[in-house]
Amino acid sequence: MTRFGILSVAVIMLFTGCGNEKEKRINGLTSHQKKVLSYLPAETQFIMYMNLNELRKTPFWQDYFTSVLQKSNGSSWLDEFEKETGSGIKSGVVEFITTGSWSGNDASILTFDKNLSAVKNYFVNNSKFKQSELLGKKFFQSKEGGSVKFYFANDSTLIMINSEAYLNDLIASEHKSLLDNKSLFPIIQSIQRGSQYWVATDEGGYASGLLQQLVSSYKKLPVKNLISSVKNITLAANFDEGVKIESEWGCEDTKSAYLLSAAIKGALAMDLLAGRDSALNELLQKMEVNHDKQNINFEINLNKNDLSELKSFAKKNQLDKKL
């Protein structure tokens, strides 16, 4: 699952940088999303969000998401989990969220909308898991080893986390959560089309590493020097009719944003980002690049054929092995 998230971010962001919700949104988030994010550590620096219920309604679910999810790391565990509980990729799992940080206090969350008892009993009655307690609350760990702890914040929310210290603080309601992160959380709040898929980071180094893979052959390309000015990134994708991707890169100042956007536009005009890949170049020509003060905005609309080209490009360049 994590590898799928990183690969998807890589494929989209390397080339670039959702649906209406019935529930009232809070600065780009629903009240439910905000509650789920409150379980995540404050030191989070990268986050990916997927709403599987929303994505299952789209034309891309069967042809794209299902196949990629099933090939991802952890897919065998998910297959077993779905057989035992009736909840998984096909149905039952509503949301998947995964995070990363330099501190290693990573966390993931699954939320469910059916078979709730079966989901919890999977851990309670499974001989592969051992049960422990913190402050009177149960959590589970694999008997085969590993640091991941499985904890049910409520009947429909499963948290997977490495740090027992953080889990203890979470149970005691003494933790500092992602909502307290004054750098990343405002960036997340700025995402307005986040009902299906979005990512956010306040670490510009993610962009640097990704873009360098495309421009490594061009030693004098100004993008390579200017990319270090990127401080934060958001990306949201909507898959209802084709694929609409919107990404915003926040730079350290207005001058950097202007110069970087100009450099990217120039690189696109000279086909430098696509290199010798003519199909990729045709896709990149669809991208709109604009800057607004300290931000660079990217927007691109893709169809199924375009997505196939992106997947072929990623496979050919083995991007998933580099990330």
| Termini separation | 14 Å
Strand content: 25-35%
Shape: globular
Q: Count the strands?
A: 14
Residue-averaged pLDDT: 79
* Tally of DSSP helical segments: 14
Helix-and-strand structural type? alpha+beta
Provide structural commentary.
With 323 residues, the protein is an alpha+beta fold. It is built from 14 helices and 14 strands. It has helices at 2-15, 31-37, 52-55, 61-71, 75-85, 116-124, 164-171, 184-189, 205-215, 223-226, 254-269, 278-284, 304-317, 319-322, and strands spanning 25-26, 29-30, 46-51, 93-100, 107-112, 129-134, 137-142, 149-154, 157-161, 197-201, 230-238, 243-251, 288-292, 295-302. The strands form 3 sheets. Strands 8-9-5-4-3-10-11-12-14-13 form a 10-stranded antiparallel β-sheet, with helices on both faces. Strands 1-2 form a two-stranded antiparallel sheet. The longest helix is centred in the C-terminal third of the chain and has 16 residues, at 254-269. The two termini are 14 Å apart. Residues 1-27 and 319-323 have low confidence and may be disordered.
